[in-house]
Amino acid sequence: MILMNDISAISIKNLTFSYNSKSKPVLKNLSLEIGRGEIVGIFGPNGSGKTTLINIICTILKRYDGSITIDGHDLRRNADYARRQMRVLFDESIFDYELTGRSQLTFYGKMYDQSYSYDETMRLARMLNLDRVLDARAETYSKGMRRSLELVRCLANNPRILLLDEPTTGLDVFMRKKIWLLLKKMSRDRGTTILLVTHDIEEARQLCGRVALIDDRAIREIVPINQLRSRLNKRFREKELLHDDILRGETTR
Amino acid sequence: MISRFSRLALIARFYLKKQFAKKTSYFGVLSLPIIILAIWLFKIDQLLGLPVKMNYSIYILPGLLGIYLMGRSVRLGFVFSPELNRSLRLWLTLPIKPSELIGGFIIGELVFQLITIVIFLFMLSLFSLTTSFVALLGILAYSVMIALCFLGLSVCIIMLFDSRDLVQIIYSAMLSGMSFISPAFYRIEESPWLLKSLISLNPLSYGIDGLRLFITGAHEMNLLVGVLYLLIFITCAMGAGIYLLKRKTFFYT
Hints:
The structure holds two protein chains of two kinds.
Chain A: E1 10-17, E2 27-34, E3 39-43, H1 50-57, E4 65-70, E5 73-74, H2 79-85, E6 86-89, H3 101-112, H4 118-127, H5 143-155, E7 161-165, H6 173-190, E8 193-197, H7 201-207, E9 210-215, E10 218-224, H8 228-240, H9 245-252
Chain B: H1 4-20, H2 24-42, H3 44-48, H4 56-74, H5 88-91, H6 98-123, H7 133-160, H8 164-180, H9 193-201, H10 203-216, H11 223-247
Helix pairs in contact in B: 1-6, 2-4, 2-6, 4-6, 4-7, 4-10, 6-7, 7-10, 7-11, 10-11
């Protein structure tokens, strides 16, 4: 008998994806296991396939090779199960600017309906200082407020899995710390599994236990968080600066 | 999980909220009544110098309603354009089936169109046209059939072509072409044989002919063939739309 605790929350095996049959794969033979309640960071240069990976897991991109399972359920066969468990925070705002924050939070909350609670959504909105603007159209929000609104949508009502693409971009330092505390609490108390795409070493240090370094279409290594800075420095020296005549002198200083 | 019916109602309500959040939508509702008011005010029959017994104003009323419904309905396709609808990315990750997504938007759009149809029915009294309860039901049934034909067709077109500009050209060509190849502005009997055969292929022709029967009491085409043709067209267009949405890969990089 297989116990649910033995199954990874997200399991990716030999994932290969290209946007069309003629182009070079964006991801090649990528494998990653994420346990329940774990926070794993994805680090990598621009264009390395991080957002594509998020889009595949959240079922927008469908034609891939390899296998992905969510709580042991195959993503291809049971996409509906995966969608119910996951909330996705995309790298850019996806809310309708014409509508109010409140109407959008209520709509998306009800669409998931795992245990939709209006009060909890509003409590989170208050925590992220959105309570006074919820009845205004989203077009009047600042960039940071839009990000906070997206975060409320994702974090409300106990999601089991969170896919976060640069969650605190555009937020001030106090809000960032608040979000980090909230994510850590969700992971610790509710067992929420978080896959975090970030470019921010501080964010990864605050949240992640492990970080997967993506480069050249595949995960190069998975490092414990305390080794992230040294590994990144090493890779940066090896891969980037040594090929750049202008910056080469800077590395030797 | 909330029931399928509740999900459809939620999506339809959200779509309507979104529509009425835009000021241009009010013009969308009122455009047809404004045209009809202009026809009544300027007495188009006298402008054309036609004998009174021909009453061209009344003849073109069903055609105008049919063309309005077609024009509104093809706009639905743009909801499924990633370039024009930023929330599409999020909707694709919601735990709902493609049929529910399309169905919810269609219900919302039909409710939107119903507002104009009701105004249209009131405006018939300007032309001393009275409608019985049966005629009212007939007008509603044909209106829904015209709308469904082009709602389905617009979804298919947007799924087949990725470029927004190309889709806009196709929609414009379709609107003007189908309006011309229909009995909206002239009698089928008096048109040349090639036009006659093209008219018989156009679903809008059968819709306008049915509307004309219930508004003016006269019609030119076989009603049974018309209803069957419309129902088959709706089934094929909707089925193809849902199938294409299931298969479609939306690229977000």
